[in-house]
Amino acid sequence: MNIYSELILDHYQNPRNFGSIKNPSKKSVIYNPSCGDRIELDIVLKQNKIKDVKFRGQGCAISQASASILTDYVLNKAKEELKKLDKDFMIKLLGIELGPNRITCALLPLEALHKLI
């Protein structure tokens, strides 16, 4: 059985918000040494809302697709709202069942986001 849904494959092969922001308000880098996945996140904050977001990274389809999906979601959202996002939210956003090893991959972008806000 293939664990990758069409949504995951689409975001992995055609990532949204991929790149960097020239003068970000904040940036973070998260690295998972156990699997080698890496996510760099840049945001522009205006009036406590994310007005621009970009990510760069390398790693498995889950971590990269998760970053793409999450960056789509957070655009124009308030910091306070984003602080409430958790593991259950990410699993629901991705829409697939994940084992313990893959959960870590899926949560990497959220960890990068929480580090920023």
TrEMBL record:
GO BP annotation list: iron-sulfur cluster assembly
Pfam family, one: NifU_N
CDD domains membership: IscU_like
InterPro entries with a match to the protein in the record: NIF_FeS_clus_asmbl_NifU_N
Domain NIF system FeS cluster assembly NifU N-terminal: from-to ranges: 4-115
Top-level taxonomic group: Bacteria
Record-level Gene Ontology MF annotations: iron ion binding; iron-sulfur cluster binding
PANTHER family: IRON-SULFUR CLUSTER ASSEMBLY ENZYME NIFU HOMOLOG
Name of the protein: SUF system NifU family Fe-S cluster assembly protein
